[in-house]
Each structure stands twice: as structure tokens, then as C-alpha cells.
């Protein structure tokens, strides 16, 4: 039976003292150190994957998620997938939260040979609340980066994927993330329309 979650509907305007003190007690440095192994991994939109880990973490904080497991996992969420031969013990032994952080990272990691659609559908159907929230923050970061991508085919494919697979995840866990993702999809599709991409595609298909 599919699990039901209480959707977050409020987004803080800024961090209050209570959450500041919570964040102060979350030791992220061991996970940031692990993530620096991604500095050499370039992104299609520019920059590198290390920066993307921290960008995803900042989006979670922006949405008010001061959760030790979630923030630590966000720092290393692409390590298993993007670092060949990555040693999972680095996460498992990072600190006392390591085993739980590793479990969450593995939830949002696509297995070798697994279809992207199958992977995303598994998160829709079986993902924990934390996994779904982390995947939404990850996708917000990626959708913003589409503004620096020059391949219209890639932009269209990514928008389709977001609409089909990520919006159903977001609407289950965080209304404001859902709204931002819709806005990002609309803005990227507007870019495609203004560039004449859809008209050219229609002409090719005739």
C-alpha cells in the first residue's frame, strides 16, 4: 500500500533562532569532505557536481528543512552514482548518522543499467518522505541549471521528465516545491517556444 505523507504547505521567509541552533548542531564537514571527490566531475550546464551537492542542500534549507539526515545526504547524494568504485563505507563511517545517511543516498541513487523512468517511478511508488523531498530539491537545482544549457532537445526531455515523474513526487510532500517546479517547467518551455524549437520540430515531423 502506497504511503501517505503530510504535505508541507509553508515556506519560511528566513531562518529563525530555533532552526539556526538546530543547524549549528549538525556537523556537515565530514560529508562535505566526501563530496569534494566530485569537484572533477563536470556538469552539462557548467560547473561541477560538488557545487551541485551544496546547491541542493541550500535549497532544502531555503525550504525550511533542518534535518540532520536529509542535509547530510544532500551533500553526498550523487557520490555513489557518479564516482566509479565509490566506497560506501566513507558515508557509513562518517559519523553516527552515517548508516541512515547512506540508506537515504541509496534511495535516490539510480542503479547501474536501471532505466531512468524505472528509477523515478520507484521513488514515486516506494520512496521515503526524505527521499522524495531530497529528489525535489535535486530537481529544482537541475531545472535552474537548464538556463545554462544550449541543447533544446535536452531541455525538452528534462522538462518532460520533470512533468511526468517529479511533479507527482513534489505534490505529495511539499506544495511550494511543487509550485516552483511548475514555474521552472513553464519558463523553460517558454524559452523553447520563443526560440522556434517547437516550430522547427513540427516541420521536421511533417
TrEMBL record:
Protein name: Metal dependent phosphohydrolase
Organism: Treponema succinifaciens (strain ATCC 33096 / DSM 2489 / 6091)
Amino acid at each position: 500500500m502506497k504511503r501517505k505523507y503530510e504535505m508541507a504547505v509553508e515556506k519560511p521567509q528566513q531562518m529563525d533562532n530555533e532552526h539556526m541552533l538546530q543547524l549549528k548542531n549538525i556537523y556537515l564537514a565530514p560529508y562535505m569532505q566526501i563530496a569534494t571527490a566530485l569537484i572533477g566531475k563536470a556538469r552539462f550546464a557548467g560547473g561541477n557536481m560538488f557545487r551541485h551537492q551544496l546547491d541542493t542542500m541550500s535549497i532544502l534549507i531555503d525550504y525550511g528543512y533542518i534535518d540532520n539526515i536529509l542535509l547530510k545526504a544532500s551533500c553526498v547524494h550523487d557520490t555513489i552514482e557518479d564516482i566509479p568504485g565509490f566506497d560506501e563505507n566513507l558515508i557509513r563511517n562518517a559519523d553516527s548518522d552515517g548508516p541512515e545517511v547512506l540508506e537515504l543516498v541509496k534511495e535516490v541513487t539510480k542503479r547501474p543499467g536501471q532505466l531512468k523512468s524505472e528509477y523515478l517511478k520507484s521513488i514515486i511508488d516506494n520512496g521515503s518522505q526524505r527521499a522524495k523531498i531530497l529528489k525535489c530539491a535535486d530537481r529544482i537545482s537541475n531545472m535552474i541549471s537548464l538556463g545554462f544549457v544550449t541543447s533544446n532537445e535536452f531541455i525538452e526531455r528534462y522538462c518532460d521528465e520533470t512533468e511526468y515523474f517529479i511533479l507527482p513526487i513534489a505534490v505529495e510532500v511539499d506544495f511550494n516545491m511543487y509550485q516552483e517546479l511548475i514555474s521552472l517547467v513553464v519558463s523553460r518551455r517558454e524559452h523553447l517556444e520563443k526560440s522556434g524549437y517547437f516550430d522547427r520540430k513540427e516541420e521536421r515531423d511533417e
